[in-house]
## 1
Amino acid sequence: MKVFVNWFKTEMRAAGLYRADFLLRLCYSFIAMYGVCSLWQALYRQDPGLVGRPLQAMVTYAMLAVALDIVFYPSALKSAPQNYIADQVRTGRIDTDLLRPRDLQSQLLTRNAAVALFSLLWLVLPAWLLGVFFLGMELPATALCAVAFAVSVALGFFILFSLNFLLGLVCFVTLDIRQITMAYSGILTILSGKLIPNWLYPEWMQAVIRALPFRCIFEMPLNIYTGALAEREIVLGICLQGFWALALFCFGRLAWRKVHRRLSVQGG
Amino acid sequence: MISVKKLTKTYRIAQPQEGRFAALRSLVRPQYAIRRAVDGIDFDIQDGEAVGYIGQNGAGKSTTIKMLSGILTPDSGSIEVNGLTPHIERKAHLQNIGVVFGQKTSLWWDVPVIDSLRILKEMYRIEDGRFKRNLEMFCGLLDLEPFLGQPVRQLSLGQRVRADLAAALMHDPHVLFLDEPTIGVDVVAKERLREFILKINQERKVTVLLTTHDVVDMEKLVDRVIVINAGSILYDGRLQGLRERYGRERRMELAFEGEPPEISLPGVQAKKQKDGKVTVTFAQGQYAVDEILFHIRQGGVSIRDITIQNADIEQIVRDIYQEGGKA
């Protein structure tokens, strides 16, 4: 926990150091929010019944997705587990991570969570405020939705972390994951409900998406926020997220153990 | 105390295949060559000792260090460091040791040094008081202050190694492994690093195992060396003894009153220098210095000045490396 606090402070200081970078990121998310807002408004002018949800709810969904993307974008941050592992493996510095008295997975989770919390407070929150005041974003449907949304975002983060970590482990085998990362980012963009609402896909594809963990990252919290889910569905959704979070985390742990054993036997 | 017994480690190296469909075949059924990186080595290191671990590139030095630090599992043999088996009791062992690689930093690349140290403080669960004391001490000894706030990627090599040394010692380890700590560092910075390592070894009684190619490192820092070649130990003993055992050549510089004479003793080479002095080299043990001087004086010349040089360690190390220790 104290390691987490220290990473958080480090991140704060870095933001102070690179103020221009920080402001640009905020600027970017505002522009992107404005962009999706205009896009959906234009689509609704063509056919108001297109999506099956009121315009304001859809605009809120889309803008919030863009704002959350600051935390969730898989390859934006150097400290994201897959990027960090790739870097360390490529430069041969991964040895030094293994020399610390903490497990690699928890080392990375601690740092990543601190960075995510920082982004949430200093980038997503301001972007959200801008959206509410200037672009007509709605507030959470109910107080319950707001609380459930927070829980859901946290779980979404854990799921994404575990997926990223697993992707990073591939690096130990292939040494380079740039191509795989591209494909992965693409899948995430299309299947997570970040850009295209999943309910617009054909039935068979929705079935596939329901079987995969990706929709738990964006679609679930966003649906909760916009009030598209009934109470029972919210509880079920969060349970599903919890299941994926736990399963993927354990899978990551097992996979890392295997990779670690191989590393320590075969050498780097 | 470090105790290593019959330690071996082999690596499998994928072999390129030749002939038709070579790439495909190496994918389907790769062939491996077995390379013994460390081949049955034994040694003990007492608490507080400073030991140099030397050998050519690829001799097995880093592999040994990696096994001692617990990130590599040995094939056979046993290692004990302060009563712990590194690759099994990994976490407890890592609390006990510090490791510095001259070639790569163990700090976070894009994070300021002080932040890295604070994060390590929590990882190693260092109490506030101890952290403060150590930080102050290392800042003084290693002059860290000017770059504490800079991320590692902006540091010069000398600064980076200093920061790494401080980081490796923050948790007061009993044992310090240094893998070529002075490599590529300029002369002045090297001297400071050596002073620091010496101080840590002598005042804090930290056991130091140091791999290096730098002869001055050895002479200043360690009194015992272990020479490893092709995975086996060639020599384990005092640095001085290495000189006696492998320093087969002795050298003497003579200045004469008047014209230098011809020296004709079997096995003795004499070479006239530009300044009129003569350098005489001969095999250790073949002659006593006195015998040679006696022989020269028989010719009726008088010697004005004599300098006798011991074979320097650098020469010895070079000889060992070149011959693979066939002494």
## 2
Amino acid sequence: MKKQIAKYYPIIPVFAAYLVLFLIGRNVTGTWQLVAMLLFYCALGQAFNIFLGMTGYVDFGYVAFMGVGTYGMALSITRLANIEGLGAAVIAIGFLLALLMSTLLSLAVGAVALRLRGAYFAIATIGVNEGFRFLIEGARIWNGSEGLIFTAQLNQILGRETASALMTFWADIMVLIIAALAAFVTLFYMRSKIGYALTALREDEDAAKVMGINVTKFKIIAFVTSACFAGLVGAASWALKTPYVFPPEVFEIHYTIEAIIIVLLGGAGTLLGPVAGGLIYGISKYYLSIILPGFQLLIFAPIIILIIVLFPEGVIGMLKNRVKNSALARFII
Amino acid sequence: MVFEQLSGNLIQGIVLGAIYGMATMGLSLIFGVLKVVNVGHGAFIMVGAFVTLWLFNALGISPIIAVPIAFGVGMGLGLIFYYTIMQRLLKAPELATLLATFAIGVLLEEIVKLIFGSEFRGYNWAVGKIGLGVTVLPLSKLYACIGSILVAALLYLWFKKTRAGSAVRSVVEDSEGARVCGVNVGGAYALSFALGIGLTVASGTLLTMFIPVGINPYMGGGYTLKAFVIAVLGGLASPYGAFFGGLVFGIIENGSYTLFALIPGVEPFALTRFLSFVMLLVILLIKPTGLLSGSGK
Amino acid sequence: MALLTVENVTKRFGGLVAVNRVSFEIRQGEFIGIVGPNGSGKTTLFNVISGVYFPEEGKVTFDDIDITRLPPYKRAPLGIGRTFQIPRPFASATVRENIAVGAMFGSLSGKVSVDESLDIADKTIERVNLQEHREKPAGTLTPVEKKLMEIARALAMKPKLLLMDEAMAGMHPNDIDQMVSFIKRIAQEEKIAIVSMVEHIMRAVVGMAERVIVLHQGSKIVDAPTKEALEDPKVVEVYLGHPPEEK
């Protein structure tokens, strides 16, 4: 039993980091905005890492899952606003809808794309976010390019005060929970057969097949899990904080770029990586936006190239090597 | 009347397709030789567009002259990126080159944004029109089409007739064998990468001759997707397949836009873009090595 | 009772016939060698048995199950293991984790937990004497150690049939002797049939295969106990280019 618990020690630094963030945000005035942003980036990183880090495949259309998650929440709020007595359950339904929609989209894309190897898969995903956006706009689904605005409905369901509290505080708490959950699932996968299968297929897909691993099945598991968390992040961090959704905004490749930066910076495939990456990127972006607004991609693009060429294991990867033979090794993975 | 419209459409599609095709040849060349997918492809097209814009607006240089200049710029960029980055990643897992080319694309977008700002710009190269029976075509578009075909032909000749071209071809067939025969494989890689980027940047110029507006740092993204559709259509490793794939794609894109415009209640531009994405998935499912690829190069 | 039956298997690539109506049987616990120079079709035959290729004609049966069109990952749980000529470790995972993968997805697939697989890995590591490298990333091992790990990983799959692809290639003769006797011992203890693919018949002799199947240009020309095969004129001709009666 003790051995079982010991397997989960590495979650402690992750939860500790989130706890510290929360405490800082609550107790140091004026920092909650920054904390909320950092939590968003950590959650995004954890979600993206489940796929990129564990399979070594990159999904360039990743933001599409955040987008549909946002739509899920938005649809729940707009369509159910007039049903008496649902109240805050609409939010819960919104999350469920977000989960459902990301699962469906990821299964649809995955069924096609995950049969393809490495580069072909990446190519297939390049248009997913755009494709979905243009589908919505082109076929005028869910109000097409006009998007959905639901401030009024939100106020109606929750009352003005609660709605405001949701947008400025509780939504961020939900993001924190999502980030923690994503970290937990990551560790769970790592310790289970899923993790071993993913490592094997990441290192050598053909050898993995010969060893008896159904690589497509495991790729799909990682892909759908990662997509679901993206949907939840979109629902909490976009729909619940800014009550409107416009297709060009929620399918912007920009967020995929940030996710890639965060995961690579922190260390792809590590548990703590997304936390480290999210913090570093988030803080840098925050301060850059004060000194040199709009410059963060200009600065991070070459950093990414540097990491790929010189430090592919990322911050946590390097830290892991440092602490390899010490007591800390059990906590840093 | 319908026949006229359709054949007019066809001609427009072919003209556009030739340019699309030429714009994709660089992508296929780089994949064919280095087995690297240049995810930042669209950004290089954008660079070509801006080079043309600047040369025209600031120096009054005609886009026709801009084509070889853009090509030169592209080759320079290609060599720089090859020797600083790509060369070190030849032995790395595929993911590394995918992300590196992606990051290079982002970097280019940001640098261009820094220099030129993010507004949409254009230029006006008024050289008149030409009547082609069923349709009227601005001469600039015709020049762009002719230019694309010329470049494709030049590339073909280069591969067939020059030593460097033969060396590159041998590397594609069998890099170890080529090495043993004394071919400078590293040099062939560098040259191919530079050539591929050069072609891509030059295609940006030709593209602006066709669509001289809407030039902005982020215009590349849409073209990356189209280029990939064309590339898998024609065979990811074959520059000539890419050219013909471009023709096919141009016709389909133009035709579908007209068709979608006939359906009430939908937005044809958006649906056409959605269609390209669907085409990509379908082709990748059926035959990832390219619908049009036989054994030819 | 045959463990593996290959019946009239033909594999073509375009116009080229790589494997031409090859048939043979392997019984439980047998140690046979498939021998043939480059181009003889032995690699293709190997790939057909392990599932990388499906034959155009013919049938492959394992343990009474028709596996002709079964994908590779489904053959492993049935008890077919394979090693590669150039070892393919999962580089960033430890030796222990590598071998555990074999246990998890091999013939015990679905019946062992992660911890049990790690235990099996530990035991297998002891048998191959890789204890001091247990926690090292597999990518950092020397080529010989990687070879050992490759074999250990296949053994952890608890296979009934082990396909060994030029396992001894590039090894020092002393190491080969050790390796061979080690493999034979384990094979006997666990009743594993071994198909060893080698390029030259002498290696099969050194590897002490009981029986050899000699391929030439895609067809089986000899299927006999090793000693007999060595003296078979057809074999001599294949390797020397002329029948033994001449010069």
## 3
Amino acid sequence: MSRGAILFAFNSTKYDYYAMAEYTAKRINHFLDMPVTVVTDKNSISKKSKYKFDKVIIIDPDKTNMRDQAIWINKGRYQAYELSPYKETILLDVDYMVNSDRILKTFDITEDFCCHDKTSFYMHPGVPQELLSAYSYNTLWATVVTFRKTKRAKQIFECLEMVQKNYDHYAAIHSFVSGVYRNDYALTLALRIVNGHTLLPGDIIPWNLLHVGKNTSVYANSDKKWNTEYTVMFDNWQKGKIRKEYITIKDTDFHVMNKDVFVDLIK
Amino acid sequence: MDTKTLITESKARFSHNSAKAYLQEKYSSKLLVAEQGGLWKADAVTINILSSFTTKKLVLIDTFNNPVEVDRKELLNKLKDIYVSATSEYYAEWKELEAKR
């Protein structure tokens, strides 16, 4: 049974997503011992790079999404099902820091498809879960998705495509802002539609996705290639002053929400 | 600049609450295991119920709320191993954390 990871990486004017994908791919190779396929476009591929992905798939991306007045290519994630050369696939965001083999456990918990439905933020214990809007669903997260090439997984990705193409309509129904397309929101709706507007426990990764959120930075504790120890530092604003707080973490995967922090980390 | 210098120079304080929450997250997932067609948490409740029976087979409700017939002793041994290894690691990291108090 072939098993691998797939990453989507399209450079923007501000960030080199292909470089991020390379960094993450190397860690996937090392910690998960699996090949990595990258889905990218001609403009993003680095000619200087020596790293060899298992497969490089070049597509013509949908550039209709905007964030911070710049093009943000994050549409088209539904193509992961068709483009993945593997029977069992982990679809990851390129800014997910792999520090352990924990994601491999997701293959044991699902027949078809699974993703996170709960998150925790380092330095912000107890932050409420994100909702699509005040009266809508809890957000599911597209950061880590594990799927097999089954009929049901295909349906979920086809539904994701349908939601993406009708995003404004779903935004109106669920009262969220449609200006910026979010894979998390589209996935939330797609999975619920396929499941008859409910959630199945087997589709949910039974631990929380760990985020490094706002006002939080991460620093590697060593220069070693496969370092897994980090200092997480938080600017705690109190009475107009910043009080810096920190913790040390090790052997734990995390998702960096602020791309600048991730870029600094992989330098 | 290494992280120790960074912490000293920025006068950062160690956050026990955040570290405690992080450890809880980390080790809670380490207690999970897929075995015999179900997903189990190697916690006190599951280990206790498996220990309190003597039959070879037992029907248990897994973490997905599905009833699963299991080989009781085999699952018990597996969960005990996982419990001991995860909580030992947890304890070691917890002691490091306490030392920073």
